[in-house]
Amino acid sequence: MTQLGHLAQKTHTAIGDLLLTEVPVGTVPIPDYRTVADAHLSSPSVNLLNSIYICERWQDWYRRYAINNGHEPLAFVGSLTTNTNLQTAAALVFCPTRVERGHAQAMDNLDRRAFDAGRGRGRECS
Question: How many angstroms separate the CA atoms of 7 and 18, rounded?
């Protein structure tokens, strides 16, 4: 690997970005709720941006998976506002997804199945 490749790897920077004449401006591609009263923050960290991009890829993958497997859209998606009561919101989300409240095992199973399916090792739901 070249010195440039090593530098890119150590700094979590794309090689192409190291060749630019100006530093690229990192913007958060989702609403940024890291501040109070719109206080100024420095640029988002590479780790924050990578986490967001990974989550966006997972969302895209699951959307395609759900569409390809005939899953119907969930009615609660897009229906909640910041004024929605927390208990009401939780009930709307938990019921259609059949996640039992207080059940760590259910969440672990859901997480494991999503991870396995994303890696092409999906199991049929029982």
Answer: 9
| Residue-range domain boundaries for the chain | 1-71, 73-126
pLDDT, tens digit (0-9, with 9 covering 90-100), for 2-22: 898 888 888 878 888 888 898
The residue type of 45 is: S
Give me the helix-helix angle, 104-118 and 46-68, nearest 10°: 80
DSSP string over 4-61: HHHHHHHHT--HHHHT-SSPPPP--SS---SSSTT----PPPHHHHHHHHHHHHHHHH
Look up the pTM and report it: 0.49
CB neighbour class for 31 (10 Å; exposed up to 12, middle 13-18, buried from 19): exposed
